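G.,

No rush on this.
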Amino acid sequence: MFLLLIDFLTQFDPRFLVFNYLTLRALMAMLIALLGSLLLGRLFITKLQQYQIGQIVRNDGPKSHLKKTGTPTMGGIIILFSFIGSSLIWGDWDNIYLWIIMFSATIFGVIGFADDYLKIKRKSAHGLSSKQKYLAQSLATILISVWLVSNAKNPVDTQLLIPFFKDWNISLGLLGMGILSYFVIVGSSNAVNLTDGLDGLAIMPVILISAALAIFAYISGHYNFSDYLYMPFIPGSGEVFVICAALIGSGLGFLWFNTYPAEVFMGDVGSLSLGATLAVIAIIVRQEILLFIMGGVFVAETLSVIIQVAYYKCTQKRIFLMAPLHHHFEKRGLSEPKIIVRFWMITLILVLISLASIKIR
């Protein structure tokens, strides 16, 4: 939207062209999203407290979580409003990737909102049933996948890139690309959702991964940089750099209120939309495998639930004291802040390893 104003102002002073630069727009998008999150967050939390809209805590969870009952939830709305608002202000409306990402964040946010709303209405820890949630996620993902596939114009758009190797790519075709997109998006949205169980545990990995994807987007959208670093050139993907910056800013603003002890929880409206957004960005910049590596914490949390359920059905015994994995460590006596910071550190290490793939090719 701001680019339209810049085009108009440039007629009077060409110096306004500086606002066309990706780096400046990304910086401004991050700052606006950060300020929006901080300002909206305080107002939103006050309103939630006023209407007594709070978290319902499971009775079978760690006893330390019982004190969190009543803490305002659905804070993901703060992230979505500041993220989408800043992206639309500083993004290029002619770029198709902007609209795909905005649509993905919005539709998964709606699914999460419905789940959170039912929990509050029923005063229960159960919202949408697992079948209802999976069906809604699947329908949304199919729409997004079809949109992504229909936009595939270059060979790289339907290839699976193998990190750390220069010319090792797997051609998937349109159908294979659609199937891969489905599993990446559904898997990522659920993985972030499962991880969001401790104060600030999910949002910081989202911020770190967004920063890494921003770097990949900037490189893949710049012909000279991508050619020098032996990475595929993806026309238009540079705009994702601005969108990632807005996501980082909104996430940092939310973390101000979500850090331990949390004043607000993101709820499913935040976790489902953030997971899907990261997945769509990774698909656009063709870094699905690196998303799996960078999101190692999300993957571990998801696998712990799958393993726990499968093992219990077969043996009636549990491998973990409680799943997801962060609850297992709580049951072993580790303090919540220690678990959170260590998971952040693991994510940072995995992100740095993934960024090393830029030069190791």
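When you get to it, here's the other one too:
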Amino acid sequence: MERYGMVIRVRPEKLEEYKRLHAEPWPDVLRMITACNIRNYSIYHKDGWLFSYFEYHGDDFAADMAKMAADPVTQEWWKLCIPCQEPLDTRAPGEWWARMEEVFHCA
């Protein structure tokens, strides 16, 4: 299992829409998240920032993310969510949400 922390900005005028979407996520999107070996997925908001945390239980993260990206329902969900977000300029090539470095963990 690998822990992931990621960050992105939320557009201020889109915050309520983003919250509304995530208050009632589509069941097929949730199933795809699970099918791609993601567990304990949470998104937090503070002062215009979104922080996500999840645990990856698979053995090929890139393949699972490609599977998710190829899913038509997930693509439709992203069409609603992406306009709400503003990625960091410092994100790595190919990232939308910027992956964060874990500097501490206490189990």
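Residues 2-99 form a domain with the Alpha-Beta Plaits fold (CATH 3.30.70.1090). The first strand starts at residue 2 and ends at 10.

Enjoy the weekend,
O.
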